Amino acid sequence: MSLHPQPAAAIRAVPATTPFVAPEELARRVGRTSLIRIGANESAFGPSPAAIAAMQAAVPLVSLYGDPESLDLRTALAARHGCKIENIVVGSGVDELLGLICRTYGALGDPVLMSHGSYATFAFQVVGHGLELHTVPPFADGAVDVEAMLARAHEIQPKIVYLANPDNPSGSFIERDAVERLRDGLPADTLFVLDEAYSHFVTSGTLVPDGIDERTIRLHTFSKAYGMAGARIGYALASREAIATFQKIRNHFGVNRTGQIGALAALEDQSFVRNVVAEVARGRDEYHAFGARIGVRTLPSQTNFVCFEIGTRQAAEAMMHALLERGVFVRKPGEPPINGYIRVTVGTPEERALFYEHFTAALDGLRERVS
């Protein structure tokens, strides 16, 4: 038997997992060069023209590393959120920051708590860092059960409690008073991670107001409303102590220069963001109306996507594959109780029209096979 270097035991124990198969790979699997991309919750409306211009102007400087402190961007973000730059860290997307949080606040085997079926990449990071994942069943529509989360937190005393609000993949939203009740009711030494990637799209109810809480880390991204998923820019708001701790171990040159410059320009073009949010709201309403018209239930959403009920998990998987064969990329929630749904990003008016056409045809085909 030949010997060769082995990964650490904790990593060997992690099952081989890819959280999300990229649309490029899915296109290759069905022999296509491109797809209608309404599955990854990217913005169909692109980045601000100001951000595009700023990034184009920055391309000749791509030979240089970006500012490891992201000082200009952090200064602008601090002004926007009413905090100090010492309360902000910038990373290459929320996903990197989730990994940084797990690495910083969790030791091998420490318990971590989240709602079952919520954002899969956080669960991926928890397992990959050797922490012990605990989940609480959500309500029947996938919404987070705050009271159950609190009760479970006091049972297991987790190091980290994670909440995506609005939630991905359900699209549900928890009002400010319930979020604050969860935060304030956690054990004293539990870190509360509030992922607000979709907060721009909240059109009713109230978000927790800006402010720095010693036991909370809030996460934001330029991937959704700002339309810059490919630039990989996310940031966290936290106490000075938390940011200083991240400073010890974070990837200081992980955020590229062009992305930093584009994010700063995007931040200054809030009228563009408001227009995107308004168009997404129109598209969501269209999706709900379309579902009602053809007799397909949709879940309420305060994000840039809507979940359509297909039936069983197997039926939803068949629908997802049928749409892929027709050149339409969508995803589906992976866990019950909503794994019988497909999740569809709000596309442009043209993409929405194509989606309706392909969805109707694929659904008719699925119903014929079932009957």
Characterise the protein shown here.
With 371 residues, the chain is α/β, with parallel strands linked by helices. The chain folds into 2 domains: 9-46 and 271-370, Aspartate Aminotransferase, domain 1, CATH 3.90.1150.10; 49-269, Aspartate Aminotransferase, domain 2 (3-Layer(aba) Sandwich). The chain contains 13 helices and 11 strands. The chain has helices spanning 9-12, 23-29, 49-58, 71-81, 94-105, 120-128, 146-156, 176-185, 240-249, 257-267, 270-294, 313-325, 349-370, and strands spanning 36-37, 88-91, 111-115, 132-136, 160-164, 191-195, 216-221, 234-237, 305-309, 328-329, 341-345. The strands form 3 sheets. It has a 7-stranded mixed sheet, with helices on both faces. It has a two-stranded parallel ribbon with strand order 1-10. Helix 12 (313-325) packs across helix 13. The longest helix is centred in the last third of the chain and has 25 residues, at 270-294. The chain is globular, with a radius of gyration of 21 Å. The protein starts with 8 loop residues before the first helix and ends with a helix. The model has no long low-confidence stretch (mean pLDDT 96).
